[in-house]
Amino acid sequence: MAAYAELDDVERITVTTQKRVQAIQDVPVTVSAFNGEMLEQLGIVDLDVLSEITPGLIIQEQSPNNPGFVIRGITSDSGSSQAAPRVSVYYNGTDISRSRGSYFELFDIERVEVVKGPQATLFGTAASVGALSVTTRKPQEDFEAGITAGLGNFSARSVQGYITGGQPTVQGRLAFTYRERAGYIENIAVNQPDLNGIERFGIRPSLRFTPSEDLTIDLVYNYERNSDTGTSFKSRRFAPTGGDTSPFSFVEASGSPVAAEVLGKADLGIDRTVKDLNLTLNWDLNEHWQLTSISAQRRFDSLEVFDADGTQAWFLEFAEDATGKQFSQELRLAYSGQKLNGFVGVSYFDEEGHQRVPFSTEESIFLNCMGMLPSGVPCINADGSVTVLTPLLTQGAFDVLPYQGYFQNFGEHTAYSAFFDLSYAVTKRLELTAGLRYVREDKTSRYASNFGNSVLAGVPLLPVASTNDVIFSADGRFSSWLPRFNALYRLNDNLNFYATVSKGRRSEVVDVGSTQSAEGVVPRVDIIPAETVWNYEAGLKGSLNANRLRYAVSFFYQDYTNFQVTLQDDAGNFFVDNAGDANNIGVEAELKATITPDLEWFANLAWIDAKIDENSSNGDLAGNRFRLQPEYTVGTGVLYGRDLSRHYRMTGSVLYTFRSDVFFEEDNAPVAGFDISQAAVQQTSLRLGLENSQHNWAITLFANNMFNKEYLVDAGNTGAAFGYPSFIAGPPRMVGLELRKTFM
């Protein structure tokens, strides 16, 4: 206990979840919060690593073009322009939830807040199960600059930096990041880069205007470019030449390690750009009233070319070309008083998206691999070589594509909202909150495709009713009321109890496609009903020993109606369908303890039993677990810092995570005899550093996935629709060295 006597009262964590600054203990919802300093201490620069320190959150990063956000078992990852997201991803107060545009680099971050449960009044209609909110650092008047450079295995190199300063009325800040790393899955195609490599650049200039004490105007521009190498879709049915079918295999064969092989197209990989402009105005009208205006626009353009079959055959060659642009405007008037706090507001959101999926194949290989030819020979031989019958069947050549085509979808979405959220202190101990959002949405969906006919059969190889570039269209108008009710009861000065009831909604989908009829190819239009969820939750938040021990635990039950699932048809199209009812029950807990002045320990755990109801009306999916959600997750770690002398300080951190087994598809079933699942995974990361306060430098050694555990990022994928599931390996052990220098 002597060590505690040397400590001052530990600073309380504050959040802005309810659009005002509050101690996290006083917010009557389940929220996890992390400041930028903690992210830097743990070396977190990737979005998916946030999962390791947040209970109830899973972020799957298949690529920057294809992230998946999972809160309490519910996945938001559809790339279709016609589908709606389930998880709100907020960047500097703006909704950027569209999947292909929602990835961004974590650099120069002020704070991250993860809010669980429906939060429509706080974070918009996309927050049907929760929200991830990230706020970047803003300019300051005092001059400060810093730069961090790093080197690591797999030829990793990185540099991040910032510079800020100004005068009382105008301040500026410029932050940037650049990261590159060679792929960790060897591509044995000739003269092609290894797979799962990264090259990512971001720059963020920002200005802050403070013409008076009452008015603050922030202008932030963000530009990011991703040029990653191809994703390693590894086949489990056919081995590459000289290799085997393990997604993790580095078997020595002919003096060369083998893990993956693709045909060797020069354009395999990702080319993605994101441009974001945000103007935020905060005006203190008087001591009680504040007006906030947030105007933002965001554009993304992403092309990903991938080898869906995971072999060296020109068999299932796909790409995804996705674009999107959005504009949003929110006006919010907030009131702060002794008993009453809250806000009212209106918002406008307009989005246009386009997803184009080209497909190409060498026709005889496709027909042979699909078992449609009486050739009597396998499409891929035991040594990995390809059986080519093209000259016999189509008079073509291996490098000539006799069959190719595309399908594409468009989506236009306009939403008008009015909302309020009010909290009233009934007594010193009891505070009640009620909120409501009304939303009206106008949606237009369009679809087109163009596939040539098979030379052999006279019909398209893929079961797609080709529109021959004719665009089919449909639209709809929908509206909804989304409430939330919260109660906070202060049991004593250090322990609060809260309960909440809230409604979430994933809006209707206007699903447009094509179908063959007696009159020819005609539009197919399905209106998928809105998915609604009622969330019932209760929890405790408390602290002990002058806030040196902070804890939170929550219990929740979620009841879904018209649960929407993303399925894949035989042509590789992803579509949204109604899986009926579903329910979700779980427990989440967080613990943070300041053990000594030098040592802080944190831990989080979650038990989530999320599945589709065992009801015959739910068909083959009845009783199945939700995809990507482990039943148990645990994360724990320590942050260490000790002064060695007047100017030198040793720092360190350890992070350990555990996830139980997961399914990668709602079917929960093998494909072509291969399990589409991942067994339990444990990982450990370590950082150890030395700082010099006199000259403001630091050097840090790090090891991520220190024990080199093998695990999958995803399985099944597009190839599964054709009976050729593919598997994506997670990163192996990554080690490196960072050097940081700060100027003040």
SSE inventory with pairings:
Blueprint lengths: L1 H4 L8 E2 L6 E2 L7 E5 H7 L14 E5 L5 E5 L2 E3 L10 E5 L2 E2 L13 E8 L3 H4 L6 E7 L7 E9 L3 E11 L3 E12 L16 E15 L2 E12 L7 E2 L15 E3 L2 E3 L10 E16 L4 E19 L9 E20 L3 E22 L1 H7 L20 H5 L8 E23 L4 E22 L20 E21 L2 E12 L2 E9 L2 E9 L2 E14 L4 E13 L2 E5 L5 E5 L3 E15 L2 E14 L19 E12 L4 E12 L2 E2 L13 E2 L2 E12 L4 E8 L7 E5 L9 E4 L4 E10 L1
Parallel strand pairs: 7-10
Antiparallel strand pairs: 1-2, 3-9, 4-5, 5-6, 7-8, 9-10, 11-12, 11-43, 12-13, 13-14, 14-15, 15-19, 16-42, 17-18, 19-20, 20-21, 21-22, 22-23, 23-24, 24-25, 25-26, 26-29, 27-28, 29-30, 30-33, 31-32, 33-34, 34-35, 35-36, 36-39, 37-38, 39-40, 40-43, 41-42
Overview of the molecule:
The protein has 744 residues and is mainly β. Helix content is 4%, strand content 56%. The protein has 5 helices and 43 strands. The strands form 9 sheets. It has a 22-stranded antiparallel barrel. Strands 3-9-10-7-8 form a 5-stranded mixed beta sheet. Strands 4-5-6 form a 3-stranded antiparallel beta sheet, with no helix packed on it. A hairpin with a 5-residue loop joins strand 31 (564-568) and strand 32 (574-578). The longest helix is centred in the N-terminal third of the chain and has 7 residues, at 36-42. It comes from Alkalimonas delamerensis. Keywords: Cell outer membrane, Ion transport, Iron, Iron transport, Membrane, Receptor, TonB box, Transmembrane, Transmembrane beta strand, Transport. It is found in: Cell outer membrane. It is a multi-pass membrane protein. InterPro entries: Beta-barrel_TonB, Beta-barrel_TonB_sf, Plug_dom, TonB-dep_rcpt-like.
